[in-house]
Design a protein that fits this description.
Layout (H helix, E strand, L loop, with lengths): L2 E2 L2 E2 L11 H9 L4 H9 L4 H49 L1
Antiparallel strand pairs: 1-2
């Protein structure tokens, strides 16, 4: 694999055994240069390619779960703030 400035250069990845459609699908799936390089390096080894893709899938799912946890924290904070606001409005009404 050719490297430039310590990074894989996707234009130089040996892609003879991989169709443009598969390469585009990998890119669309968010695969970085390293993942694409690993996938291509496993050409002919379907089991190894599956492992590469499943690992990338797990990473994507972990990011989703992390984002969901952050949303849950925000939702809880908003709930608490709105609850406090309603309480304050109710107290102001009674005064």
């Amino acid at each position: 694999m050719n490297r430039e400035n310590g990074k894989t250069n996707p234009e130089n990845i040996q892609t003879e055994n991989v169709s443009e459609e598969i390469l585009q699908n990998l890119k669309d799936a968010g695969c970085d240069e390293t993942t694409i390089g690993c996938y291509i390096g496993c050409c002919g080894c379907g089991q190894d390619q599956v492992k590469v893709l499943k690992k990338h899938r797990r990473c994507l799912l972990d990011k989703i779960h992390e984002g969901q946890k952050q949303i849950d924290c925000l939702d809880y904070l908003l709930y608490q703030m709105e609850k406090e606001q309603r309480k304050k409005e109710a107290e102001d009404k009674h005064e």
